[in-house]
Amino acid sequence: GGFGTLRKYNTLYEAEDQSSHPQGQWQGNEVIQKQPPIPLNEYQKNLEAGLPTPSLMSSSIRYWSDFNRLYYHPRSIVQLNEYELNSSLMPFEDWTAGEDLFRDLDKEHDLLDRDVRPFAEECDQLRALQLFTGSDDAWGGFASRYVDALRDEYGKTGIWVWGCEDGARLPRHRKMSKMINTARTVNSIAPLASLYCPIVDAPQHLPKYLNIDLQSDWYKSALLASAIETATLPSRLRSYRDFETSLLGHRGGAQTIFELQLSVITPDSGDTRPPWATKKDSVQKPNDEAKLAYDINFTTPQSMADDTAVFTQVQVFRGEEQESVNTESVAVKDIGLTRKLRFYASKPAVERFTSTLRFPLPDSYPRNMFSGSDAKVGVEMVAALSTTSRLAEKLKELQTIASSGVGVDERENLTNGLGELRE
C-alpha cells in the first residue's frame, strides 16, 4: 500500500528468471493470484519513456512514488506485512506496538545484518547514519529500538534522527496520546543520537512568499526537503570536513536536540524581514552572530524572540556570491582557537557555511511554490540548526504531560529522562 507504483525491481536491477523450479520443489500445477497493479500516472509514464514530463499537480499525486525520480536497490525496499497502511481496524499508533514489531522482526531476520550492514560495508568513509521517522505514533517506538541497535553496532558513528510530528488540529485525547508518544521517542532517541531534530508537519506560521497546499503531503514534503537538504549540505561537500564537529557546540555534544529553521533569500525585504534574508545584505562576515528572525521554524510554532538564548547554531547559506578572501589567511585559520575565543567571550557556538550551489527545482517539485523562483537557476536559501532555550520549554511541556498521562511503572524514568535532557 505505501509504495504505490514503485516496483521492487526496476531497469537497473532486473529480477532473476525464476521460471524453472529448483529440484525438490513442487512440480504440479500452480494457481497464482495477483492484485491488479496500480497504474502509472502520466508523469511516470513519460519519465520511463524518456519523454518530456508534464507538470505535476496535487490532484495527480496519489503516492510518493508518483513523483519519485530515483532507482532504489531491491534490498533497500522492505515491506512490512504485519500492519496495513492507514488501517482503521488496527492502526499503527501505539508506541509500544512499534517496539514489539521491531523486536519480532529483529528476532526473525536480524534487521541490521539484513538491511544496514550490506550498504554500510560498501562505504569507504561512513560519516553518519540518517533516519527519518514519525515520533508521535508507533514508528517512534520502532525507531527507538532501531537507534538503540545502531548505537550498539556503530558506537563512534554519528546518528542523525529527524522526528516528524503531526501538526494538524486533533481532538484532545488524540493530541495527548501523540504527545506522550513524542515524549517517549525523545527520551529514548535523544541520548543516543548525535542530532535529534523534532519537525512539526506542517509549521503553523508560513511566510507570504510560499504558495503551498497544506492539504497535500507532496507540498509539505517538498518544503521539508528544502530545509533539510540545505541544512545538511556541508556534510556532502568535500571542502567542509568539520560540519559534524560544529554541531557539538561548547558542551562537547551534550546538547543533541536541535531546531530547524529556514528562510528563502528574496529581493523583497518587506517591513519585517532582516537584511541578511534579502538581496541587500548578501555578503556578510564569516563569523556572524546567531540569527533569530527566520521565516519558518519547523520545530516550535513561535518565532524566536530577542530574549531567546542560543547555545549552538550552524548556519548554511546557499546560492550567494561570496566576496573574495585571502587564501593564506584561510589556510592558517585555527577553527579550534576560534571556537575557544567565542567560548571565553560567553558567545554561542556559531558556525557559518556558504555555497554557491542553489537549491535545485526538478520537475518533480511543486511549480511556483517559492514566489518568483526560476527552475533553471534554483533558489537561494539559508537554513539553520540551533540549540536554544526554547527547546527546554518544549521538553518541560512534554515532561508535564508525561507525569499525568503514563503509568506509574514508567512515569518516573520518563519524567527524569526528560528532565535531564531539559537541563
What order do the helices and strands come in, and which of them pair?
Layout (H helix, E strand, L loop, with lengths): L41 H8 L45 H15 L1 H10 L7 E7 L3 H16 L4 E9 L5 H18 L5 E7 L15 H15 L11 H4 L12 E6 L31 E2 L12 E9 L8 H5 L3 H10 L4 E7 L25 E8 L1 H16 L2 H15 L1
Helix pairs in contact: 2-3, 2-4, 4-5, 5-10, 5-11, 10-11
Keywords:
single chain; 423 residues; alpha/beta; five-stranded mixed sheet; three-stranded parallel sheet; 13% strand; globular
The radius of gyration computed from the alpha-carbon positions, rounded to a whole number of angstroms, is 23 Å
Strand order of the main beta sheet, please?
5-4-8-6-7
Helix content: 25-40%
- Secondary-structure-based class equals alpha/beta
Number of helices: 11
What percentage of the residues does DSSP assign to strands (E)? 5-15%
The end-to-end distance, rounded to whole angstroms, is: 42 Å
What would the principal axes of the Cα set say about the shape?
globular
Major pleated sheet? 5 strands, mixed
Which regions contain 5 or more consecutive residues with pLDDT less than 50? 282-287, 323-332
Overall pLDDT metric: 85
Please, what is the oligomeric state?
single chain
Compressed to H and E, one letter per element, the order equals HHHEHEHEHHEEEHHEEHH
Q: Would you report the number of β strands?
A: 8
Question: What would you say this structure looks like, in words?
Answer:
The chain has 423 residues and is an alpha/beta fold. It has a domain at 391-423. It has 11 helices and 8 strands. Strands 5-4-8-6-7 form a 5-stranded mixed β-sheet. Helix 10 packs antiparallel against helix 11. It is globular and about 80 Å long.
